Amino acid sequence: TQLLSLLHSLWQSLQDSLTPYSYFDVPEFLGSAAVEPNALYRHVQLYLQRSLLVASSPPPPRLTLSLPRSASVSGTSSSPTAPVPHVSLSPNHSVADTFEGHRAVWTHHADTLQDSLEERRSFSLRLPKRHAATVLPAYLAHLAAAADHLERSSRARRLHTNAASPTRAWASVPFCHPTTFDTLALDPALKARLLSDLAAFAGGAEFYRRTGRPWKRGYLLHGPPGSGKSSLIAAMANHLRYDVFDLELTRVATNADLRALLIQTTNRSIIVIEDIDCSLHLTGERVIVFTTNHVDGIDPALLRPGRMDVHVRLDACGPHAVRELADRYVGVGAGHEMLDAAEDAIVRGGAEMTPAEVGEVLLRNRDEPEAAVTELAAELKARRRDTDDDDALRQWELSDGSPTKKGRKGLGWEGKVRILGRLRSLTKSDSGRR
Ligand SMILES: Nc1ncnc2c1ncn2[C@@H]1O[C@H](COP(=O)(O)OP(=O)(O)OP(=O)(O)O)[C@@H](O)[C@H]1O
Predict the structure, then answer these.
(1) What is the C-alpha separation between 44 and 350, in angstroms, rounded?
(2) What is the per-residue pLDDT across 386-404, written as a single tens digit (0 to 9) for each?
(3) Which of 45-54, 218-227, 284-293 is modeled with the greatest confidence?
(4) Phi and psi for 406 in degrees, rounded to 5?
(5) Pairing relation of β-strands 86-89 and 63-66?
(6) pTM of the model
(7) pLDDT tens readout for residues 330-380
């Protein structure tokens, strides 16, 4: 056996010196006892599963399909879907990838150990020898980023809520809220700016590292009940694919409890605090969302730069949101006279209905689209605040597209959604509740 093994290594050395390729092995487990999982093996597995096997054309001739019994809901959408089988490269088969013009070939090996039923699995990567030294680091970084993205997009997310003190523990359930930025009726300008702000935050690792700022972003959502604050949080969580930690401050008795809870929150999470009259110190890659129905009552100290970076006012539906909801709920599109009447009531008459109220009218008439939009127009007409047509067209606030109150000027994005951006912790101190 020893002689054979020696001959085998000699043969491999000879081959290695003659071949134009370099080979890199990625075993599944590390160490002499092979018990420590190799994270890189998992990255390669994921990368091949999604990026190559599904997309490569023509596909490799032999794939292994599996559906573990524990497989729960999966898929990248926020709504539950049937479990999708895992696809993997069958043992001793290869698949090719192209990176920066270079061909990389992955082979999956599965060797049964002598005198044992145990199997050792590994991937080997073949790269052109001349370029291997320069290509490998960049290729591995690309692979790790893709695997990380795939892992997050397929990971089941959870909604955490804090139990009553003194347990200092979070309880969690699967997070499957159906609201996304696609289903949310929002002013298009506000939607676009929120999406770009979230993208800048989520992709800002290098920026936050370079500037030394804690990688976190505070949002203040304010508006009346039913204006969509919770829905927007769900859409943000689904968009970023973050977990949600709903922090109920009335259940937190002491500062130590609060700190213990915050320490347990994971990176890539949204922390929701509905009672914002508090002071918190948070660091790490997190989005903190504060909500309130009455922004005017907030202690100005809490609105100072660095605490709540982005202020979003959600309010009554603007005409755009009404049309979007009518289309989505009952399939009535633009041009319908009742929608024109609804728009007129909002724009000229100052009528106000929150998205929740509009949704409710449409929902209870969902089998009769005509009746739905007629009732909606009637309801808005009844809420008109003008009596004469001289009441000039009202200004529109960019943040929510809803009419401003008499005498107030539209503030625009800068006014309503302020990116304050100063280096500061979320609040002055971590002294807990005030
Ligand atoms: N922008 C929107 N687009 C579509 N539906 C919406 C929107 N805003 C609210 N809704 C509907 O109204 C319902 C209530 O909204 P939501 O709970 O998000 O409001 P909220 O501002 O958080 O209210 P509260 O202050 O009472 O918690 C949602 O379930 C959703 O169906």
Answers:
(1) 58
(2) 754 444 333 333 334 343 3
(3) 218-227
(4) -55, 140
(5) antiparallel
(6) 0.66
(7) 999 888 999 999 999 999 999 999 999 999 999 989 889 999 999 999 999
Ligand 1 binding pocket includes 228 (Cβ within 6 Å): yes
In angstroms, what is the span from residue 431 Cα to ligand 1's centroid?
32
Question: Any idea what DSSP says for residue 301?
Answer: G
> Comparing C-alpha atoms, which of 95, 86, 94 is closest to residue 52?
95
Separation of alpha carbons 167 and 264, rounded Å: 13
What atom of ligand 1 comes closest to residue 328's alpha carbon?
Answer: 4
d(CA 426, CA 429): 8
Buried residues in 102-127 as b, exposed as e (16+ CB within 10 A): bebebbbbeeeeeeeeeeeebbbbbb
Residues 274 and 186: their CA atoms lie apart, in Å, by 21
Percent of the chain with pLDDT over 90: 33
Q: Whose CA is nearest to atom 11 of ligand 1?
A: 356
ipTM of the complex: 0.96
Angle (nearest 5°) at CA 233 between 229 and 234: 115
Q: Where are the domains of the chain?
A: 16-154, 158-315, 319-396
Under CATH, to which class is 158-315 assigned? alpha beta
The answer to whether the CB of 357 falls within 8 A of the CB of 370 is no
| Of 83, 259, 237, residue with least CA distance to 159 | 237
What's the rounded Cα separation, in Å, for the pair 119 and 112?
Answer: 4
Q: Which of 419, 229, 171 is nearest to 308 (CA)?
A: 419
The DSSP string of 61-120 is: S-EEEE--TT---BSSSSS-BPPPPEEEEPTT-EEEEEETTEEEEEEEEEEEPTTSS-EE
Quickly tell me which residue has 């994270």 as its tokens: 39
In contact, 275 and 299? CB cutoff 8 Å: no
| Angle formed by the axes of helices 369-382 and 337-347, nearest 10° | 20
The partner residues of 174 in beta bridges, in order of sequence, read 158
Cα(231) to ligand 1 centroid in Å equals: 5
Among 183, 194, 231, 366, which residue has the most ligand 1 atoms within 8 Å of its CB, making it the best to mutate? Answer: 231
Q: What is the mean pLDDT of the chain?
A: 79
